[in-house]
Amino acid sequence: MRKKVLITGFDPFDKETVNPSWEAAKRLNGFETEEAIITAEQIPTVFRSALDTLRQAIQKHQPDIVICVGQAGGRMQITPERVAINLADARIPDNEGHQPIDEEISPDGPAAYWTRLPVKRMTAKMKEHGIPAAVSYTAGTFVCNYLFYGLMDHISRTSPHIRGGFIHIPYIPQQTIDKTAPSLSLDTIVRALRIAAVTAAQYDEDVKSPGGTLH
Amino acid sequence: MRKKVLITGFDPFDKETVNPSWEAAKRLNGFETEEAIITAEQIPTVFRSALDTLRQAIQKHQPDIVICVGQAGGRMQITPERVAINLADARIPDNEGHQPIDEEISPDGPAAYWTRLPVKRMTAKMKEHGIPAAVSYTAGTFVCNYLFYGLMDHISRTSPHIRGGFIHIPYIPQQTIDKTAPSLSLDTIVRALRIAAVTAAQYDEDVKSPGGTLH
Amino acid sequence: MRKKVLITGFDPFDKETVNPSWEAAKRLNGFETEEAIITAEQIPTVFRSALDTLRQAIQKHQPDIVICVGQAGGRMQITPERVAINLADARIPDNEGHQPIDEEISPDGPAAYWTRLPVKRMTAKMKEHGIPAAVSYTAGTFVCNYLFYGLMDHISRTSPHIRGGFIHIPYIPQQTIDKTAPSLSLDTIVRALRIAAVTAAQYDEDVKSPGGTLH
Amino acid sequence: MRKKVLITGFDPFDKETVNPSWEAAKRLNGFETEEAIITAEQIPTVFRSALDTLRQAIQKHQPDIVICVGQAGGRMQITPERVAINLADARIPDNEGHQPIDEEISPDGPAAYWTRLPVKRMTAKMKEHGIPAAVSYTAGTFVCNYLFYGLMDHISRTSPHIRGGFIHIPYIPQQTIDKTAPSLSLDTIVRALRIAAVTAAQYDEDVKSPGGTLH
After folding, report:
1. What superfamily would CATH give domain C3-202?
2. Do C213 and D141 touch (CB under 8 A)?
3. What CA dihedral angle connects C127, C131, C135 and C136, to 10 degrees?
4. Given a cut of 90, is residue B8 above it in pLDDT?
5. Which of B164, B215, C171, D50 has its CB 3.0 to 4.6 Å from that of B66, i.e. a possible disulfide?
6. What does UniProt list as catalytic (chains A, B, C, D)?
7. What is the pLDDT of residues D85-102, one digit of tens each?
8. Which residues in chain D are contacts of C137 at CB distance < 8 A?
9. Contact residues, chain D, for B131 at CB < 8 Å
10. How far apart, in whole angstroms, are the C-alpha atoms of residue C109 and residue C53?
11. How many C-beta neighbours within 10 Å does residue A24 have?
């Protein structure tokens, strides 16, 4: 049976005028295959509001799968995240000026949640299609990790049938005009997220293949 | 009262002939100040044995503080780790040929442990002394994270008065002769670990200052 | 009057199965605007033959402008080259096994030639179109620099009305599946070279704006 | 017969409070072996004055060998430069506010000068001593390249018996506290320059071994 996939992207932050996560997510809104139908929603780069908005979107769309997407400026690959940690520690203020320091996201939640998405399969599938990808083991401690942890905490408490996860993506080329940083084109990112969504719809379980990072 | 600090380093792995973590740790063996006295032990880069060796060293030395140190080839800063995750996922075999894939380190342990060391203070102190340092939020999924998680699991179950943590360090220059990678001199690393040990001995609690990473 | 632009790309080298310079160049073959008409030719990654092939292509097409293009794996921007040096010093053998060491390309040629293309204008124009670009001051010492120097030496001796230059481009994404390296999509590279060709056709002279590198 | 080696370093620029080239050079002042005796002089990071100061130092010390040294922030190796180009193109103003754009350094000089130092030998010797090193083929277009070109132009016209060259060095650790950049310790840099000076004193000619860069 076809799975409903909710994909979210953030609004721009950290002096950027565009956020490739939302640019890519919105292009996938309404995309359908036999396995998956995608809906996209935008999330504010703001602690607390980010999670409120996500919960409302889940309430509204009743998805089988939730994939939150965020910009990881400086990375050169599409990086599905494996683990979310119970820590908000903001190096810069969010879009409303909040800057939590060493705060727990959920006071009675576990130290970390594992993604429920088949991140090794998704990564392998992207690479088969010529897209640079790697599993990541840290989503940072800013709003991206906050949303990822909050998503996993929410669905584990209220709707354990939903599978959730997070994907970090590089800058798009136009963002790197005045900095020296790697980028991937929006087309490549959109293709990567489409592959991720369909793979997540097709497979509940991940493949057991060597992976990991040395540090 | 003066604190006993156990510092561990690994033997060489991944085709290296030297491991800067052990080179640095052994130079600190016997170092004393008013606040701290350091003992060093070597740990094999082998899943399971690493932790057995560490437990024996803790049994033998009865330290107040344990700081495990490991090589993070490619990093350019001294990076105290904040979180250990319950996952062994080896990209390459360890020094005895074991290559666990997606295994839990402790089947009934939590998803993650936080360090008990004041990593922001340690980082700030290193920077005051002109040493590049940053808190890291991922220790990878190889033997370093395995030892870090295993240490925290062990002391939380058997000896919660011990405070433990992990520091990743860059290559030393001689390791980068035939690769293009950053390095720090052994002298700098030794100084950094000494500062870390003394700071950990002086302060139980960390300082609450902005930090974190965007991703 | 419309300018004839010859764009060349290389065949794959250094264990790659594709060379983005030729993939991009061949897509531009036959492209026309009011200012420029583009012809593409492939060049072997072989000392000597590379230059023979280029001279024949110039003879055949009688271009106004020649833009040679080569892969610079590891760069993250489109980088028009400013200077070619009279040195062949091969770190690896070329595609026919030649590995010249510290050889002059032209025994009675100057130590270096400046490009005749308006590289600052080209770079600025690419950036206006959202493409990461920067002027480069070294084309290396392998076949790319060899062809660039040989081109400039040839036209300065035989056909000074022709304006010539070289552009280095990054890997395309599919080349970075099994390495950690930045890339730009083929579409982005094709657009960049089209902008470069048209800009070179429109402007004989470069703009005088701040640029350069600190080292 | 023992060679007199003049080593120069620059004063700080680009918002830095220290320049590792001068910190290292001044530590070598007076250093003697059977082959070499080193004198150090400081050079201002200012177009024109840099060269005036260098010429006076040459006049005063009557060296056999001149090695100018400069900071290349972001590099991770000691990089003897092979070629100086006849171009001043400043991305930022120098320490007196001059910012030449696309200017020739010497209107009737050649497009480039080759170093007269045995840069491959020097690099190999540093690596034998465990120091990361590589020959570089671009000294940039700022005051470093200006001084290097000016040095070679001066001695080729007035004192061709003097052999000259340039070495770029990384940041030292203290400069990278608030940026993410590689560094080498001052001790390592001092050792590297000492090896460079002695090697240059011992060998007039370079070794013919594979080297070079692909781009």
Report:
1. Peptidase C15, pyroglutamyl peptidase I-like (3.40.630.20)
2. yes
3. 170
4. yes
5. B164
6. 81, 144, 168
7. 999 999 999 999 999 999
8. 85, 87, 138, 140-141
9. 173-174, 177
10. 20
11. 27
Q: Which of B45, B146, B41 is nearest to B88 (CA)?
A: B146
For D15-40, how does the pLDDT look when each residue is reduced to its tens digit (9 = 90+)?
999 999 999 999 999 999 999 999 99
User: What Rg value do the Cα atoms of chain A yield, rounded?
Assistant: 16
What are A150-179's pLDDT values in tens digits?
A: 999 999 999 999 999 999 999 999 999 999
The residue ranges of every structural domain in chain C are: 3-202
Distance CA(C56)–CA(C40), nearest Å, equals 13
Query: pLDDT over 70 for what percent of chain A?
Result: 100
Edge-to-edge strand list for the sheet holding C163-169: C36-43, C3-10, C65-71, C163-169, C79-80
Helix/strand/coil for C207: coil
Token couple for C115? 């490009």
What token pair was written down for C201? 């056709």
Mutate to test the interface with A, among C184, C189, C215 (most CBs of A within 10 A): C184
In the prediction, which pLDDT does D60 show?
A: 98
**Is the backbone of residue C7 left (phi > 0), alpha (psi -120 to 50) or beta?**
beta
**Distances, alpha carbon A50 to alpha carbons A75, A76, A90, A96, A103, in Å:** 23, 25, 14, 11, 16
Question: Is the distance from CB of A211 to CB of B89 less than 8 angstroms?
Answer: yes
The answer to whether C183 contacts A184, with C-beta atoms less than 8 Å apart, is yes
